[in-house]
Amino acid sequence: MKTKNIMIVGVGGQGSLLASKLLGHLLMSQGYDVKVSEVHGMSQRGGSVVTYVRYGDKVYSPVIDKGEADFIVSFEALEAARWLPFLKEDGVIVTNTQQIDPMPVITGAMEYPEDIIGKMKATGLKVDALDCLKLAEEAGSSKAVNVVLLGRLSHYFDISDEDWDASLSAIVPARFLEMNRKAFRLGKNA
Fold this sequence. Notes:
This protein starts with a strand and ends with a helix.
């Protein structure tokens, strides 16, 4: 199988590292060679965080170059737009519609772009946008946005719900498992 590339992008503290760990576990359980690379950036200060997940028969590098991402999974709308140059022509963006103001917006130096998801869709890109924060809160915690996004991403994979659940069970602490299962289902069925 040709190597496939997934970028997980967001803002520090949103759970992108857990999402990449869960996705890596799932893909390894399917027999793929998997490489995961975490690029933290200024995550402790609310800055951009990027994780690369690459899988296939044999993966030699964990890095994804511009124009190579089959999927961009984004925790925040502006982060989805920021990483667009990395998406393949036929790639898919799975994004949360939530807006988190970056520092230039907070300080008043810039304004948050209007209708950023509409602008991405207008370019002809495949954009799958969902209010993941609302669904995460419905599941029991705003911190479950990451698993809601993975539930949404699961539409694009031929992997059973049981296998996704097995990876959730292996990675998520037991006390948060039922809430995360609900978050996954809400994202998948939205």
